[in-house]
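tool_log.txt
---
The assistant was asked to compare two proteins side by side. It first ran the structure predictor on the initial sequence, then on the second. Raw inputs and outputs are pasted verbatim so the downstream comparison step can read them without reformatting.
(1)
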Amino acid sequence: MTAVPRPLLLIITMSLATHIGFGGSRVLASLFALHLGASALLIGIVVALYALLPLFLAVRAGQLIDRVGLRAPLVFGGIMIVAGLLVPFAFPNLVAVCVSATMLGVGFMAWQVAAQTMTGTLSTSETRAGNFALLGMGFSASGLIGPVIAGVSIDLLGYRIAYAVLAVFPLVALVAVWGFPRWIPRRRLAESRGERRSSGDLWRIPALRDIFIAGGILATAWDLFNFLLPVYARSLGLSASAIGVIMAVFAAATFVVRIVTAQLARRHGEPAVLVGAIFCAAAGYAAFPLANGAVALAAISFVIGLGCGCGQPITMTLIYNLSPKGRAAEGTGIRVMINQLTHVVIPITFGAMASAAGYVAVFAGCAAMLFGGGEFFRRSAARRARARAPQDRDPGSPGPGGGTG
């Protein structure tokens, strides 16, 4: 087994600490807004604020990382996350929750793009899928820990102190990247400085475009779960601690499936695994209306977590591999931008739907969207495979993805 580089272990550990604060805050923000009297629509707006500015900044952040390196975005991201968590601690009201969500979204966007690019930089073509799975496992572990810490802190200490508790974890990561930067590698600068290239060039690569879309579909399922589960579980009378545990079950599923994601991709191929992941999440949402208690919700959350958790490392790997040389962070930025678009649109759209038509309509709508998206990606992948087959039989032809990676 290939040894994992020490800088990779450090960035995974620091990303885990950062994501504990970020992931826990998403549960905390929804429950705190609900406590302050917000409607489902207003809670959807709060959740959407996490993604509003990253939607417009993610691609530029990727381009900047390709040019200036990794440390500055990591430091900036850590500062924004810590500060964002302390705003509601200082001013416990709905306006502060909205400001916090905006700051946290920008901060984690910068950290995420830099951390994913650093993981790809520290990997070879043979180790990249496994290393991205390790990074994903770190995010999964923090996704398990963060909601539990948030829920228990709310029940024991109250909403305001819970924000301060969560801020401790990203503060550790900020100290590590600001005060001890030698473990952060220097990135190779983007190769073309004179020619201004558009991010639309990456979108026009068919294989990349399909991966961007598939990642956005899975991000929709993930984000809707983070938004809807606390509100729906609260409507069933569950406590904050119980909600935190249910969300931790979701995170546990993402962790478990990432242990075998690389093996699944080698055995069945990345497109097939992505299709299966989307359909798995769709099946979970279709079963949501059948749940009326904590155990059933936990079981459904586990199924959705398997689907969402499996797809993310594969999309990260393929985007890094398929992006042109020197533009990997830009490709990651496009992926993040598309994900943020779903984070903005989905909570508001489905929050309004929940207010007007109830939760069953929301679950059915999301399941239908996922089933449709999975079928579209399945057919698209099959068409590309058929088109590539004659080239694969030609010894002189490039392999899959040739010329783009």
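(2)
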Amino acid sequence: MNQPGVYTKKGRNSQQRRFRYTTLRFIILFCAFLIIAINPCINYYLHNSFVQGWYQSFGIGSLWFVSPLEGLESLLITKTVYMPSIIGMVLPLLLVLLLGRVFCSWICPVTFILEITDRLRRAVSRKKYLRNRLIVVKKVLWFTLLAEILISMIIGAPLFVFLSPPGLVGREMMMLVFFHTLAIEGVLLLVIITLELVTRRFFCRSFCPLGALLALLGSKRKLLVVVESTQCVDCGACEQTCPMGLVPQMGEGITAYCWNCGECLDSCRTGALRFSWNTKYQ
């Protein structure tokens, strides 16, 4: 019997040029970052509030999108069902149920900053891959989520709203434009960036409560990274390049920890890895 996530049908021609997911993802990350970078300037200088907020709570006109974790915290703390918040979570929830934790890998402003940091590190060190020096058991991610929710309920305040790194990026930009200063909470972003010089995506892999909730909700997602066993030569390239510290060639692309970034697909020379929509395994 094959390992979970290993697809046994014959793969595509290994010489076929593969689509570069990493390039496309960087472009989308840049565009998403640009939205929250320009938005405060538009609000402040043009007095236009058509687009408001950042990726914790983001509004376009009367349409609002709410982070699932922010909505959950609000529900648990107030014990009140606030319908605008529930409606605002619908699209993000559909996205994660279908595609998994793609907000983290394709949209999150922290990921964009860490991508820049990673590229600068590679340019200076001339090393393509960064060996992860800080290893944390993957299951710590779930304890982070549980601890964050429990602490928020104990103190009676949404901890994630104040200390969410994706939210901090938008908040720091807003503070800079509106008040010409930075908030002290932004130090957390500096810590996360510094850790990126030692190990890739340390915070994202183990300590981001939003990432944990999205991973949990997306554990039964439809889009998966699968392995075509007849094509895999077990070279280890996908394991070296995976920012989540996974081993895609062993079928870990179907686990909750995979965030569907596509880096392993780009690194695979034989085309053994691919995205699959609701694949049935043999």
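---
observation on (2): The chain has one domain: 23-220. The beta strands are 6-7, 51-54, 57-60, 63-66, 223-228, 273-277.
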